[in-house]
Amino acid sequence: MKDHWENEAAGILKGLLARDDVGYKKLALELGKLGIQETERALRNKINRGSFSFPFFLSCLVALGYEDIRFTVRPPKPKNEGVRETPHIV
Known about the structure:
This protein has helices at residues 4-19, 24-33, 40-49, 54-63; strands spanning 71-72, 88-89. It is mainly α.
């Protein structure tokens, strides 16, 4: 089961992909230009699991064309506070 930080990381990256209308195939092509070889399927699995490193996250940002980005990371809520909010991307 994903922990809070994996959920946050996956949510931020998936939000950026959706906002830019970039699919996993296009992301794989752009990462390939940076020398990072990932298949579309491997990217989908890695991003959906949230099981990626911060260097990988930075590589994705560069592949998507970001040089400067701002987003809000929320701390974990205590178990009894209900539903988790979606990460906010500015």
